Amino acid sequence: QVQLVESGGGLVQSGGSLRLSCAASGSMFSVNVMGWYRQAPGKLREFVATITRSGGTSYADSVKGRFTISRDNTKNTVFLQMNTLNPEDTAVYYCNANGVLYRTELFNSWGQGTQVTVSS
User: 108 and 38 in contact (C-beta within 8 Å)?
Assistant: First the structure.
C-alpha cells in the first residue's frame, strides 16, 4: 500500500495564499502521476491539477494562473501553491497518486484530505 499524507490547509482571507504538501510513503513503489482534487460542500470532487514524473502539468481552467503544482521526486512529495485565493476555492483538497507497486502492481491512492477555507 502507498499512503498519502497532506498538510498545509487552513483559513485564509480572500486574495491570500496557501501551500499544500502531500508526501507518499510505502515500500517498493514508483509514483507516476501526482495530483490534487477538491470537493466543496454539496458538490462532487473535481480535478484541480496534476503533474507527471517528468514534470508535465495540467490545470483546471478555474485555477490556471493562480495555482502552481510541483513535485520533488526524491521525496515522493507534491506541492500546490495557491495564490489569489477566493471563497470559491473553499473545499477539502485531496492528494492523489498513481504508479507501480512491487514492480508489477498498479496503485491509485488518495490522501485523507485537508480543509482550505477562504473568507471574503
Answer: no
Query: Which residue type, as a one-letter code, is found at position 113?
Result: G
**Per-residue burial over 84-95, b = 16 or more CB atoms within 10 Å of its CB, e = otherwise:** ebeeebbbbbbb
Check: CB of residue 36 under 8 Å from CB of residue 80: yes
pLDDT in tens, 69-117: 999 999 999 999 999 999 999 999 999 999 998 888 899 999 999 999 9
Q: Per residue in 41-78, pLDDT tens?
A: 999 999 999 999 999 999 999 999 999 999 999 999 99
Measuring CA to CA, how many Å separate 66 from each of 38, 52, 90?
15, 19, 14
CA dihedral 23, 28, 33, 38 (to 10 degrees): -40
Residue type, 84: T
- Residues 94/113, Cβ–Cβ less than 8 Å: yes
